[in-house]
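Section 4.2 – Deliverable D4.2 (structural model, holo form)

The reporting period included a commitment to supply a predicted holo structure for the target in complex with iron/sulfur cluster. Inputs used:
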Amino acid sequence: MGFKQKMFTYSPWIYHLHAGGCNGCDIELVAALTPRFDVERFGIKLVTSPRHADILIVTGPVTKHIAPFMKRVYMQVPKPKVVIAIGSCACSGGIFNDVEGGETYAILGGADKVIPVDVFVSGCPPKPEAIINGVVKAINVLRGKCGVVK
Ligand code: SF4
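Output (structure tokens):
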């Protein structure tokens, strides 16, 4: 495996897609990225274009309105890529599902209803420590996809 490929799996860039939640998970994600927890010191950086990302992070349940946009964003992330669903809503639809766990008039459910998800971080919202743990798992998945020995 080339040096470059090995290096980028240590400092992946992240694109955040808010699929329709309450913003609770987004605030915890911001806490993980900003100086208190500061994952940027390890080179894990938030980027503003999916074309620059290695990891796609999804928060919130997937609304029917955003599903086509979400597919497009997923396609724009270059391979090899990893998707993390952060929070109960992104994992399963959470409290936005109907009482029997199915979709509602506006909500499809979890992110995996629309795109493949590699890492699930549950919680409502999950703590920054859990989000960081999810990113570490995602790095291992990314390394596996690159053929880098763990
Ligand atoms: S998991 Fe909880 S905090 Fe996160 S978007 Fe859903 S309701 Fe909000």
